[in-house]
Design a protein that fits this description.
With about 350 residues, the protein is α+β, with helices and mostly antiparallel strands. It has two domains: about 55-195, Pathogenesis-related Protein p14a (3-Layer(aba) Sandwich), CATH 3.40.33; about 210-340, CAP (Pathogenesis-related Protein p14a, 3-Layer(aba) Sandwich), CATH 3.40.33. Helix content is about 35%, strand content about 30%. It has helices at about 1-35, 55-60, 120-125, 180-190, 210-235, 245-260, 275-280, 300-305, 310-315; strands at about 45, 50, 65-70, 75-80, 90-95, 95-100, 110, 110-115, 130-135, 140-145, 150-155, 160-165, 175-180, 195, 240-245, 285-295, 325-330, 330-340. A seven-stranded antiparallel beta sheet has the order 3-4-5-6-13-12-11. It has a four-stranded mixed beta sheet with strand order 15-17-18-16. The protein has a three-stranded antiparallel beta sheet with strand order 9-10-14, with helices on one face. Strand 11 and strand 12 form a beta hairpin. Helix 5 (about 210-235) runs parallel beside helix 8. The longest helix is centred in the N-terminal third of the chain and has 34 residues, at about 1-35. This is SCP domain-containing protein. InterPro entries: CAP_assoc, CAP_dom, CAP_sf. Pfam families: CAP, CAP_assoc_N.
């Protein structure tokens, strides 16, 4: 009788130990995957992916992306958004990784960790130059780091550009990290820059895209903006917003209005303010908020600007909002937030 009773106890203890071991292995694996700084051959990386990795290597390590979206700079964004706590965008051009971005909780590059490391910490440990010099296509470029310094810092290491984005309204802590090769950094023109060359001017123009391709770019910006806003809400323990097609059309209409009539304002001479536009469309609402962005290099750049502007941030983090629609055209982005 006693022997019979002891067996299940040993079994339970062994099972508990096994489960604890499995859990600890899983946690360690997750920690390494998120924070690993160099891959097997020593190159700097995020999520074990490095600039220059092949499409095949990305699929082997991360699987197929949840979405693929064209960027206006010619590379294709691979978006991994199944788990917003591990949100990742990877840009591929000619089957090679040229840029990566993540605002994942606890994402880390070297000793810089999102949500913990402050701008002052980075300035103590790294040399932050007011102007950064890089070489591309036979020319020397001087990028002005000083004007952008408030919400980001640009570092160049091992022919790799590293941008650390800050959450200024949360103690100037690191919020997100972008890695990119020098070609992509220069072509995106995210910084004020001058350049000099000897024999011929460098080729830094964005590719000429068809109307259909531009439409794909705009759709990508809309979806990425939606994902990024929801990552911010998740990190602040707020309910995620639901995409609303009708709201997206209304947002798009305002972006088109601003683009065609060359103004940038919540108030339109033709349609009034955000609430007026919803009323005219017969869209039911109790509360509406609207974020606008203009002349940002991509959805990431617009998102960083929004979270560092108190009014725009308030819209993103208002608990009562349930739905969102986003419309992008040319250099304009409109996001409408609604509670009803």
């Amino acid at each position: 009788m006693n022997n019979f009773q002891k067996k299940p106890i040993r079994f339970v203890m062994a099972t508990a130990l096994l489960l604890a071991f499995i859990a600890s292995v899983w946690i360690v694996h997750q920690h390494i995957t998120v924070e690993r700084q160099r891959n097997a051959d020593g190159r700097l990386s995020l999520f074990d992916i490095s600039i220059g990795d092949s499409e095949k290597e990305v699929i082997q390590r991360l699987g197929l992306p949840d979405r693929k979206e064209l960027s206006k700079y010619g590379y294709e964004w691979w978006v991994y958004n199944q788990d917003l706590n591990r949100y990742l965008q990877i840009g591929l051009e000619r089957n090679r990784v040229v840029t990566m971005f993540s605002n994942s909780t606890g994402i880390q590059w070297k000793d810089i960790m999102a949500g913990e490391t402050t701008q002052k910490d980075i300035e103590k440990n790294y040399q932050i130059d007011e102007a950064v010099t890089v070489t591309f296509d036979g020319a020397e470029f001087l990028l002005n780091n000083a004007n952008e310094k408030e919400d980001r810092i640009l570092l160049v290491e091992e022919n790799l550009a590293v941008e650390i984005y800050f959450d200024i309204l949360a103690g100037k802590t690191a919020h997100a990290i972008r890695l990119q090769n020098i070609d992509t950094l220069v072509k995106s023109r995210g910084y004020h820059m001058t350049w000099s060359y000897n024999k011929r001017p460098p080729s830094i123009s964005a590719p000429q895209l068809s109307e259909q391709e531009l439409e794909q770019v705009h759709e990508g910006i809309e979806k990425q903006s939606f994902d990024l806003i929801n990552t911010m809400r998740m990190q602040n323990e707020l309910p995620l917003l639901t995409w609303d097609d009708e709201l997206a059309v209304l947002a798009k209409n305002h972006s088109v209005d601003m683009s065609q009539n060359r103004f940038f304002n919540h108030s339109s001479p033709r349609s009034g303010i955000a609430a007026d536009r919803l009323k005219a469309a017969g869209y039911p609402f109790q509360r509406v908020g609207e974020n606008l962005a203009y002349a940002h290099s991509d959805a990431i750049d617009a998102y960083i600007a929004w979270i560092n502007s108190q009014g725009h941030r308030n819209h993103i983090l208002t608990k009562e909002y349930q739905k969102i629609g986003i419309g992008a055209i040319d250099e304009f982005i409109t996001a409408k937030f609604v509670a009803n």
